[in-house]
Amino acid sequence: MIKRTLVRMTIWNSTVVFCLLIILGGALYGLARYRIYSDIDRQLVFNIDHMQQISLSNGEQVINVDSKEPERFMMLFYWDSNDKLLRSFYYKVPFIELSSMLLEKQNHMGPESIRVGKKTYRFVSRPYQGNLPLVEKLSNTPLKTVQIYTEISTEAYYLNRLLWSISIGIGIGAIISIIAGYALARRALIPIQKAWDKQQQFVADASHELRSPLSVVRGQTQILLRHPDHTIEEESAPISAILKETKRMSNMVDGLLLLARGDSHEEVISCKPVRVDGIIKEIAKNMEPIMDYKQLRLQLHVEGSESLINGDEDRLIQLFMILLDNAIKFTQADGQIDLECLRQGKSVLVTVKDNGVGISEHELPLVFNRFYKGDSSRNRGDHGAGLGLSIARWIVDQHQGSVHISSGVGCGTTVKIRFPMIS
């Protein structure tokens, strides 16, 4: 799927860039051609429309055009009513083929281009207006058409060079666009690939975690069905196992639902001023029976002044209970757990420290991953889903806080959480 998307995105990116190059190249060539030809056409039209016969100081009659434009070499063809060209004004051999072509275009009034051999010409035709008596004397029949033309081979050559340059540039741009499109598509798909891999891992882990309690439920249910005549008291062990696994699955689903809503920003915490020190004291008091049962010592240290933050009290209690629960699980009997709440500048620092089995260095970056269970969890037969620390980090992030874990095998674990205080 990702590979198909990569190819599709590369094709789309390259196509868009290639089309843009064609549009820009075409626009550049069209603009250059228009500007060059429009200047030539303007001079041709002006000259043919403003030709007049004038007398020089020596009495000689000449044809003149009063133009302020830069002079350009132009030539004229005069056609009589019998379509006969008055050649006495022009070179004979080079323009025989040209004249035969222009003869057929006497009625083409607009500027046009024609190609004769390797040369290109631009011409304009006009019906004779009777303003050139000098030319009329050269023919026994009335004049019919006047044509003015100029050679544009140089302009056509450079336009052709420009077109080739643009085409080569588009070709190179197409190759670069394919390479760049592929690179950009790969870069754009990196977060998608990570999300896809994460989703695949999530589905695999969720399936694995749900398989165990479902197997237990199915097995215990089959045991119950073997003895339909037994009383509930007689089958209390299978029923207790079913309830335990059902509770485990329920907790797992609740955790997954919370994280899923958090990822989609549907789960929003309700923040209000909360005393963190008060929550810590209450949790420590409630945990005393459990600590006694587990034969653990809880050392509480809370600074005297109030530690007020903007937060959700229920989520904060859930956060601290997750951390304490982990500390209790991985601390041997007669161990100690330290719970601290201190003010440091404009923040509140909450520390949960134990002297339990600890976490290896290579596992530390993975502890916040969903469904991750370290070697210590497996060795101790822990049946947690591996979602606790993922939920804890989400709660910390929702409170604009930070969390840091330091640990070592056999050296215990220390979790430090920092929250911004209310100004």
From TrEMBL:
The EC number(s) this enzyme carries: 2.7.13.3
Domain of life: Bacteria
One Pfam family named in its UniProt record: HATPase_c
InterPro entries found in the cross-reference section: BphY/WalK/GraS-like (IPR050351), HATPase_C_sf (IPR036890), HATPase_dom (IPR003594), His_kinase_dom (IPR005467), HisK_dim/P_dom (IPR003661), HisK_dim/P_sf (IPR036097), Sig_transdc_His_kin-like_C (IPR004358)
Ranges where the Histidine kinase domain occurs: 205-423
Any one GO molecular function term: ATP binding
Reaction equation(s) it catalyzes: ATP + protein L-histidine = ADP + protein N-phospho-L-histidine
A Gene Ontology term for the protein's cellular component: plasma membrane
Subcellular location: Cell membrane
GO biological process, one term: cellular response to phosphate starvation
Membrane topology per record: Multi-pass membrane protein
TM ranges: 12-32, 162-185
Presence of the UniProt keyword Kinase in the record: yes
Keyword terms: ATP-binding, Kinase, Membrane, Nucleotide-binding, Phosphoprotein, Transferase, Transmembrane, Transmembrane helix, Two-component regulatory system
Enzyme class, broadest EC rank: transferase
Record's protein name: histidine kinase
Origin species: Paenibacillus uliginis N3/975
